[in-house]
Design goal:
The protein contains 9 helices and 2 strands, in the order H-E-H-H-H-E-H-H-H-H-H. The protein has 165 residues and is mostly helical. The chain has one domain. Belongs to the sulfotransferase 2 family. Keywords: Carbohydrate metabolism, Glycoprotein, Golgi apparatus, Membrane, Signal-anchor, Transferase, Transmembrane, Transmembrane helix. It is a single-pass type II membrane protein.
Length: 165
């Protein structure tokens, strides 16, 4: 197929037949992260120009879902989990366990390819950070964030997300 040799990488650039052929011939892995943790990571990386987390969140809320950064756009708008049947969904915080499973399924040597993740420490750190950052937000901002990410929260098991409360 000619699509194997093209430089295009976005599925939207292909016709329906080509998309179906591509998606049917690859193992599809989706990496997902709690939307609130994504916001925290984006803020800490300095991708927003706001002086506080609360003002950064307000900028995100004001931008809505259109013309917004990929860093905080809802996952369901980015990866279309209702349209694409992913073979694996890997949750942030469980990389070591889930990537080990994927490597074993692919017949690859797990120990030599898998970096030393510390999932428990990552989860604890983000839980603590989430508590701190969430406390900075107004009740209105919390409600608006929950509404903005409602489909992500419905599509993926983010039951411990602060936005799910």
């Amino acid at each position: 197929h000619h699509w194997r040799h093209t430089k295009e990488t976005q599925l939207s650039k292909f016709n329906q037949t080509e998309i179906e052929a591509m998606l049917g011939s690859y193992t599809k892995v989706l990496f997902v992260r709690d939307p609130f943790q994504r916001l925290i990571a984006t803020f800490l990386q300095g991708m927003g120009s706001s002086p506080s987390f609360s003002s950064f969140v307000q900028d995100v809320l004001d931008s809505g879902t259109h013309n917004t950064s990929v860093a905080w756009k809802p996952l369901v708008n980015l990866c279309r989990p209702c349209l694409v049947q992913y073979d694996y969904v890997v949750m942030f915080g469980f990389h070591r366990e889930e990537l080990g499973h994927l490597l074993r399924r692919a017949g690859l040597p797990v120990d030599s390819l898998l970096p030393k993740f510390t999932d428990a420490q990552v989860l604890w750190t983000y839980r603590w950070l989430s508590e701190q950052m969430f406390s900075e937000l107004s009740v209105q901002q919390k409600k608006q964030l929950s509404r903005l990410y409602r489909w992500d929260l419905a599509a993926f098991p983010f039951s411990r997300s602060f936005l799910a409360d």
